[in-house]
Amino acid sequence: MTRIGILGTGRVGTNLARKLAAAGHHVTLGGRRLPDTDTPTTPRVTFADHRTAVRTADIVINATPGDSSLDRLTDLRTELTGKILVDVSNATRDARDGLPGELCYPGSSLAEKLQAALPGTHVVKTLNTMLFMVMTAPESLAVPPTAYLSGNDEHAKRTVTGLLGDLGWRPEQIEDLGDVTTARATEAMILVVPHILRRHGFEPFAVSLAR
Q1: 3-200 has which CATH code?
Q2: pTM of the entire structure?
């Protein structure tokens, strides 16, 4: 059993919490407000503030809004030192219709900014190229999706690969792109997402690699 802290109590965080708890992990959902009413209630899922969720975890998942993640997590530098930080967020500014717009860090990425701000933390970028429901149900798509990995630490990426397996991802669906600088490529994939959503609504999809 791994102790996992998830920062963010919205759809992404609660969806991940439900599946990881079912896989046998103990999950602490960290937030600054009460969780959504459909948040799972189970002995393996508890609730706390951000700092407590990070301090008591072995692995931390960032599911906070990407445009404010850097400030939030930099404030937790001490608690995050020595831990794996799984970043599933995209840092964008909202368009007029509320969908993702321009990148906050063009020419870079949120993952790179987090790694620079948290040098004692092992940042791994993944699961940011799909709608949230696909994160925990890759088998729901007609075409097998891809979960990309970016990070500097090989052990951390192997550990995250194991967590992806608990979420239902098969080894052949996981693509290790290399160090954390490769996250700028997958984060840029968010630019196609609003166009798809405007045409098709919130139907499950992922931006995947076809071979």
Answers
A1: 3.40.50.720
A2: 0.94
